[in-house]
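Checklist before submission:
- one chain only
- standard amino acids only
- sequence pasted in full

Submission:
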Amino acid sequence: MKRQGLGLLRALLVLLGVAALCSVALGTRKGNASVDERSHRHRHPGHLSLHRHRQRTGKEGQVLHRSKRGWVWNQFFVIEEYTGPDPVLVGRLHSDVDSGTGYIKYILSGEGAGTIFVIDDKTGNIHATKTLDREEQAQYTLTAQAVDRDTNKPLEPPSEFIVKVQDINDNPPEFLHGPYYARVPEMSNVGTSVMQVTATDADDPTYGNSARLVYSILQGQPYFSVEPQTGIIRTALPNMDREARQEYDVVIQAKDMGGHMGGLSGTTEVKITLTDVNDNPPKFTESVYPMSVSEDKVPGEEVGRLKAKDPDLGDNGLVNYRLIDGDGLSMFELSTDSETREAVIKLKKMVDYETKRMYTLKVEGSNPHIDPQFIAWGPYKDEATIKVEENAPEGTPVGRVHAKDTDVANNPVRYMIPRYTDVEQFFSVNAEDGMITTTRPLDREAQLWHNISVSATEIVDKDEMAHRQHFTFSLAPEVAHNHNFSLKDNRDSTASIYVLRKGFSRLTQDVYYLPIEINDNGFPALSSTNTLTIRVCSCDSKDTILSCNVEPYVLPAGLSTGALIAILACIVILLAIVVLFVALRRQKKEPLIVFEEEDIRENIITYDDEGGGEEDTEAFDIATLQNPDGANGFLPRKDIKPELQYPLRPGMGPTAANSVDVDDFIKSRIAEADSDPTAPPYDSIQIYGYEGRGSLAGSLSSLESVTTESDLDYDYLQSWGPRFKKLADLYGTKDCSIDDADDGEDS
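Returned file contents:
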């Protein structure tokens, strides 16, 4: 339906276009012919007319001649991309010699004749039978001719005319040379031109706005902008720094129809790179550079290097170095490495450690190429200080340590440096006076700090130290053939311990105890055995000791990640169960027998007036205590609601009042309650307020007996059993007392 609607719309546009744009024959015509033609043209806008040579005779017999005008050239128009169901009417051919009798036949030839354009040989109507594309062919040249239908003889000479394809907006703009690459200097001013992009539109630029393009920027704000009419891209932000960001991806859109809604659009990418300018001065990474030199170095040898960093590129980042000050200008010289662009400090003269131990130099690094545009951002140079120290030769004293024995004996102390604190043996200590000296030259650049330990031990021999006394060392017999360590006596009262194998592991054993036997040279020679503790230390790939302390080791567990997760999940579930259990325990338990508060309130009656006993029903509802109907049937429990009603068991029914035994009655009720399946398995309170119909005992209430004289005989209470013995004795005793008193008065 949408396509058919579009076809109808295009058909209407075609008809409107034909009516509005098709021209008529050029020139003017005289007389009736001109008037007829104008009126004919008015009726058929798309129209070509053929006029023949005619002779007319005037009133005076004068023959009037009019020049013959053949086909009058004109243009027809047809809209492109028409998809309607019927062929499009392009226009109509007509000749003046055509009187409508049908003897004239119209013939069409030329581009597309018979395939694209067909003509009705009787009426001269021309139709387009195919969809036309203006971008493929903008116009067609055709030839029209009128011939005799019977003889095919030409009635008029042939004439050409043009059918132009009218454009619609069916082509989007295209960037034929994209993607684009552009460069612009960093720190450029706002509005600096970067480049111009141009899009083309295949639609007719002379008709409507189909090819009128407007440019806009879709990506790249706020750094860049584009001129809507020209497509020139310009910078939009000041001080864009290449060192912060070098490349930008910009997307430009071209839209036809003047950029209005409904226009077609095309996009292209523009990669813009900021080029470098010299906007950064050089900078040394350190303010002071320490260097060292030894006495044995000759002039020309390198002492050290330093470099100033400049983030600019190429010539903008070049740095020239020079020595500008210091007390070592006569002793050192500076050059620049052409490859690394480093400043190289070399020895100009040999140094003498005894004469001067340290020299100071000041070096300057500057840019040789300065951009005048950014000269105000300078200065484009930096300075640093170099301190050159002469390396101490072998045997240079470092310092002295001293230890004192606080015991009364004040035994002599022996000093030594544990080798694990000075693996490479840069230092040595005098065993007697504690003087520490270097064993070889030190290189500050290779190692800035040396941390060593000095141990002081009391000498084991209690004898006085003689001037020529010395000790010898050997392994104790029990470890003489061990496979881990060996001992070498240095014959200077010292010994060296060597390892016999490789691959000591702290995981296997981190401490070894080596018994060592020490002998003196006295007479007789005395000896003692001491244990040397050897600790396995952790080292790096360069055999540098990292740690010798006892450290915890984490052994690899045999559990996978999934197993650990499962264990954690179980722990969480157990914790949740415990929390739930505690919460339930804290809740108030509901009683197994539900006693509603209303029932309790009904059974406890408070009033402050004396009633008339059982006959008084004004203070409370006596029905709560009595149930006459229950005497002949099953009495339901009030503390529960039974689901099923069970009939009374045989023998459990009520007994006549005249033969009732209260004790048996109570026992039967107890037995009934115990065997009742609807009763809970625990004791409950049952109130028996009904004495039965026709009971000889009547009411047991004491209210009536207090206020009125009673002539009832209570001897029958003696037959109620032991449960009512107290009651029978009470009433019987009272009656006897009253009778005795009356007898006394009478006498």
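Reviewer check: The CA atoms of residues 189 and 238 lie 6 Å apart.
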